[in-house]
């Protein structure tokens, strides 16, 4: 069994047996590319993780409207 190599475009396989990729409208594709870049930038950022946890905690607090 071999390990498949996935390209930056999300395609794997060889020759006529290529699979994957992205099937979204061009405008949505650009937004998804920006989202992917932001994720890669912030996924290991400790300050971002702490701020995210702060907001998750605050957002899950009961309010007068609940």
User: Which structural class fits the helix and strand makeup?
Assistant: mainly alpha
Number of helices: 2
- Rg over CA atoms, rounded to whole Å, is 19 Å
Could you spell the SSE succession in H and E letters? EEHH
Share in β-strands? 5-15%
The helix fraction, in percent, is: 40-55%
Oligomer: single chain
Number of strands: 2
Structural commentary:
This protein has a domain at 23-59. Helices cover 47% and strands 6% of the residues. The protein has helices spanning 26-42, 46-59, and strands spanning 11-12, 19-20. It is elongated, with a radius of gyration of 19 Å. The N and C termini lie far apart (53 Å).
Helix and strand layout, with pairings?
Elements: E1 11-12, E2 19-20, H1 26-42, H2 46-59
Antiparallel strand pairs: 1-2
